Amino acid sequence: MRAAVVTEFGGPENVRIVDVDVPEPAARQVRIKVAAATLNPVDAGVRSGIFGGAGRQTGLGWDVAGTVDAVGTAGTWSVGDEVVALDHGVDGALGAHAEYVVVDTDAVAAAPATADPVHAATLPLNALTAAQALDLLEPAPGRSLLVTGAAGAVGGYAVQLAARLGMSVTAQARKDDEELLRSFGAARFLTGDGADSTGFDAVLDAAVLGAPALERVRDGGVYVGVIPQAQPASVRGVRTHAVEVRADGARLAELVRLVDEGALTLRVAETFALDDAAKAHARLAEGGLRGRLVLLP
Questions:
Q1: Domains defined along the chain, listed by start
Q2: Does the pTM of the predicted model rise above 0.85?
Q3: Are strands 29-39 and 100-104 parallel, antiparallel or unpaired?
């Protein structure tokens, strides 16, 4: 099968398409024939060497939508099931940017009935990150939340999920994104650095602003970042955390249900053939995307 990998760190030109054996599922695993797989910033991090692993092949891709093709043991999933899954990891020889991927059974959920695979593939990593980040914020109705980078993939899901939980959400993004974010449930909207707007019970820093975002939290509030172990130090009694996304098929199934209810919006910016993965990485590096890039084997 074909797969996108890196063997040397660097820019988009370092993404290679290789021919490898089709992986076999072990016990409590399934193999998915990939219909669509999302390109995320974490893939650019793997490609550039942020996570280490020099001198060996490293696979790319965490998000997948497709069809169960083989099962390691009889159980929850059957051949032919249409699914989405999170293929968690930054150090495996293969990832979801391939024609087939093997994942643990408990990382899988039934695909949304209301979305095609291209859109469904944008759900697992970013929606799970948003949901698990909100857990760290201990959401409650009426609590005020600032989401930085609110028009991005994680930020957009966070706005929708937090508003659904009854939080008073302020979205920070570019002016052109105001209508979209208000449709997601944001009660207030900020542009620029928003430094004059402070006193939030919580901040979800999807834009990775760090200390400036922390300053927007009231004394004793809570800050959550989206880069593992990279949160700023606590000040003024503010609790600081960083979400480290976990594969969770049951939680993913809840998010799929919200998609089918119309409560979560799946956004695709562009699609690329798997063979053009390097071009997709170059497009990601240009920035300015609203929605995700999706690779098609």
A1: 2-123+266-296 (3.90.180.10), 126-242 (3.40.50.720)
A2: yes
A3: antiparallel
